[in-house]
C-alpha cells in the first residue's frame, strides 16, 4: 500500500505512518484516518441508493491511497461510485453540493468528508487527484472538462455526455490535458454476474462473440423523480441515459473498436403528462467485433421485487451465456445468476460473491498511468453510439 500525492509514488514498506500522512498532503485527523479504513461502506445495493447498513473500506488488493472529492450528487449513483473509489483505496476528503437534503444525506453516509465552500475550492486543491460526479446529466461533461483542465482526473456517472457536441469537447480536453475521463457504467463494472461474464468471454468460454442482446427495464417511481428526469434536454433521452450501460456492454464484450447504429427508435407510450419524456427505446448496433441489440424501458411492474429484470444474452461461436442480473423470476432467490451452454453441456453459476475489481483497478490506473479498469476510447465509443442512436431515432407510437 502507498499513499499518493503525485502520480509516481509506489509502495514502500519502510515508510512510517507520519510519512504516509505527509505524502498524502491531506492533513488528516486521526478520526478521518480511522473513518477511511473502518466506517465507510459499499452500498448493499451497489450504487442504486444510499445505505447505512454496510461498511466500505479499501479492498485487500488496493495498493494506493488517493485523495478524491465529489461534486454533484443529483443521482443516488454517487453513493455506489464513492464506495467503489473507497474500495479501490480512494480517500474521500471533501464534497460540494448546494441542496440541503443532498448535503445532509451525504454527510450522514460519509461524516468525515468536508463540505467545500465552492466548486473552485475543490478544483484548486492540489492534493485532490480525482473528482467524482453524479450531477444532472447535461452538466456532467462541462464539469468534467473543468476538472481535467484543473489537472485532475474525473469519474462521471452515466450518461457522462448528453450531446455529440459535448462529446467532441470532452475528447478535445482529454487530448489537451492527458487526464482520464472515466465513466461509471455500473451495470457492467459493479454487477458481479457481468464481471464474471466478461472474464469468461475474454477467456474464450463461448468462442468468438457474434452478438449481444441487452434487455434493461427500469422502475419509474414517478413520485420520486426530479424535474430534470422528465426532460431529454437535461438527461439525454432514454437511449443516452439508460442505454449507456448497454452500449458499454456491447463494446466491451464484442471487443469492438469501431461501431455504428443501424436503427433506433424511442417513444412515449404511457406518460402523456410528460410529452417530451421517452419511456421506451431500442437500437440495433454493428461493430468491428460483433452485433448488438438493446431494448430499454420504464415499465417494470409493481409486482417485481426489484427495480428491473435486467437480462444479457451473449451469443458466441461455441456457446452462449445468459445473465439474469437482478432477479430470476419465480426461480432462484436474489440476483447475479449466470447460465452457460457450450460444447461440454449446460451449467449455472451463482455470481453473488464475485469480487468487484473496478475500484482498485481505476485507482491503480490513475497512479500508474495504465488503462486496466476501462479503455478510454471504448468508454467514449459507447457514449457516441447512444448519442447517435438518440439523434437518429424514429418515433415509436402505439398501434
Describe the structure.
The chain has 399 residues and is of the alpha/beta class. The strands form two sheets. Strands 15-14-13-12-8-11-10-9-16 form a nine-stranded mixed beta sheet, covered by helices on one side. Helix 3 crosses helix 13, helix 6 (137-149) runs parallel beside helix 7 and helix 12 (243-254) packs across helix 14. The chain folds into two domains: 2-135, Rossmann fold (3-Layer(aba) Sandwich); 188-356 and 387-396, Dihydrodipicolinate Reductase, domain 2 (2-Layer Sandwich), CATH 3.30.360. A hairpin with a 2-residue loop joins strand 14 (337-342) and strand 15. It contains 14 helices and 16 strands.
Characteristic terms for this protein:
399 residues, alpha/beta, Rossmann fold, Dihydrodipicolinate Reductase, domain 2, 2 domains, 9-stranded mixed beta sheet, globular
Topology:
Layout: E1 2-3, H1 17-24, H2 30-38, E2 64-73, H3 77-87, E3 90-96, H4 100-109, E4 114-115, H5 119-123, E5 130-134, H6 137-149, E6 153-157, H7 164-177, E7 181-184, H8 186-189, H9 192-202, E8 209-217, H10 232-235, H11 238-241, H12 243-254, E9 259-267, E10 280-287, E11 290-297, E12 311-316, E13 319-324, E14 337-342, E15 345-350, H13 358-368, H14 376-392, E16 394-396
Parallel strand pairs: 1-2, 2-3, 2-5, 3-4, 5-6, 6-7, 8-11, 9-16
Antiparallel strand pairs: 8-12, 9-10, 10-11, 12-13, 13-14, 14-15
Amino acid at each position: 500500500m502507498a499513499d499518493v500525492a503525485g502520480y509516481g509514488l509506489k509502495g514502500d514498506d519502510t515508510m512510517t505512518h507520519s510519512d504516509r500522512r505527509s505524502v498524502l498532503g491531506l492533513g488528516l485527523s486521526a478520526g478521518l484516518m480511522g473513518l477511511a479504513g473502518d466506517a465507510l461502506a459499499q452500498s448493499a445495493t451497489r450504487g442504486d441508493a444510499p445505505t447505512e447498513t454496510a461498511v466500505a473500506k479499501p479492498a485487500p488488493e488496493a495498493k494506493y491511497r488517493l485523495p478524491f472529492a465529489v461534486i454533484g450528487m443529483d443521482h443516488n449513483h454517487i453513493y455506489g461510485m464513492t464506495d467503489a473509489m473507497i474500495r479501490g483505496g480512494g480517500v474521500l476528503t471533501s464534497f460540494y453540493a448546494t441542496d440541503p437534503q443532498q448535503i445532509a444525506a451525504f454527510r450522514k453516509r460519509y461524516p468525515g468528508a468536508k463540505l467545500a465552500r465552492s466548486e473552485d475550492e475543490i478544483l484548486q486543491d492540489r492534493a485532490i487527484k480525482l473528482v467524482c460526479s453524479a450531477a444532472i446529466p447535461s452538466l456532467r461533461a462541462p464539469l468534467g472538462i473543468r476538472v481535467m483542465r484543473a489537472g485532475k482526473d474525473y469519474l462521471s456517472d452515466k450518461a457522462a455526455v448528453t450531446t455529440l457536441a459535448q462529446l467532441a469537447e470532452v475528447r478535445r480536453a482529454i487530448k489537451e490535458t492527458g487526464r482520464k475521463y472515466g465513466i461509471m457504467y455500473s451495470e457492467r463494472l459493479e454487477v458481479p454476474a457481468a464481471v464474471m461474464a466478461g472474464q469468461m468471454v475474454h477467456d474464450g468460454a463461448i468462442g468468438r462473440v457474434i452478438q449481444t442482446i441487452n434487455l434493461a427495464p427500469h422502475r419509474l417511481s414517478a413520485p420520486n423523480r426530479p424535474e430534470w428526469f422528465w426532460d431529454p434536454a437535461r438527461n439525454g433521452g432514454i437511449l443516452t441515459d439508460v442505454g449507456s450501460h448497454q452500449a458499454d456492454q456491447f463494446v466491451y464484450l464484442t471487443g469492438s473498436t469501431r461501431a455504428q447504429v443501424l436503427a433506433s427508435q424511442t417513444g412515449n407510450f404511457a406518460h402523456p403528462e410528460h410529452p417530451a419524456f421517452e419511456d421506451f427505446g431500442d437500437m440495433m448496433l454493428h461493430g468491428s467485433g460483433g452485433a448488438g441489440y438493446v431494448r430499454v424501458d420504464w415499465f417494470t411492474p409493481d409486482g417485481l421485487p426489484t427495480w428491473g429484470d435486467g437480462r444479457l444474452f451473449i451469443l458466441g461461436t461455441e456457446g452462449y451465456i445468459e445473465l439474469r442480473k437482478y432477479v430470476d423470476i419465480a426461480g432462484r432467490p436474489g440476483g447475479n445468476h449466470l447460465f452457460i451452454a457450450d460444447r461440454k453441456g449446460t451449467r449455472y453459476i451463482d455470481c453473488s460473491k464475485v469480487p468487484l475489481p473496478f475500484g482498485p483497478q481505476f485507482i491503480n490506473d490513475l497512479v500508474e498511468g495504465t488503462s486496466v479498469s476501462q479503455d478510454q476510447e471504448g468508454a467514449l465509443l459507447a457514449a457516441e453510439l447512444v448519442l447517435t442512436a438518440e439523434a437518429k431515432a424514429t418515433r415509436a407510437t402505439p398501434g
